[in-house]
Design a protein that fits this description.
This protein is α/β, with parallel strands linked by helices. It contains five helices and five strands, in the order αβαβαβαββα.
């Protein structure tokens, strides 16, 4: 799909008629920073998407990690975000961890990315709480 496809997906995520979508798997679609940021930004107003899989979009990088970190306090619906193999460096991982600390996810948000123990971190653990059962 590339970045143009990601921007189209982002526009759909912001459309009120698409707000019933709860899971979206976009593994390996060649998204770069432009597409990843568009999707992260769309999630600031989307209140239904629970699972987003972006694994293997290797060119997204730290800009996208920061965009998702900035989205976390604005999106209470997202429960799973998969960013494994998306080109995120330790700096991007740190941004995601900071975002998890201020996440407003209804139950808890789990993020999969390199740099986390066992490739995952949760909003609860970043807030100093034991992980949910």
């Amino acid at each position: 799909l590339g970045d143009a496809g990601a921007e189209a997906v982002a526009a759909a995520l912001g459309n009120t008629r698409m707000r019933r979508l709860e899971a979206l798997d976009l593994w390996g679609n060649g998204f770069g920073p432009t597409g990843g940021i568009a999707i992260a930004t769309a999630l600031r107003t989307n209140r239904m998407l629970r699972t987003l899989e972006l694994r293997d979009n290797e060119k997204m990088g730290d800009e996208v990690a920061r965009a998702f970190a900035e989205t976390m306090p604005k999106n209470a619906a997202l429960g799973t975000l998969d960013l494994v193999s998306t080109g995120i460096s330790p700096a991007g991982t740190a941004a995601l961890l900071a975002g998890l600390k201020v996440s407003t996810a209804g139950f808890y948000l789990i993020v999969f990315a390199e740099g986390f123990p066992h490739l995952q971190a949760t909003s609860w653990e970043q807030k100093g709480r034991p992980n949910a059962p």
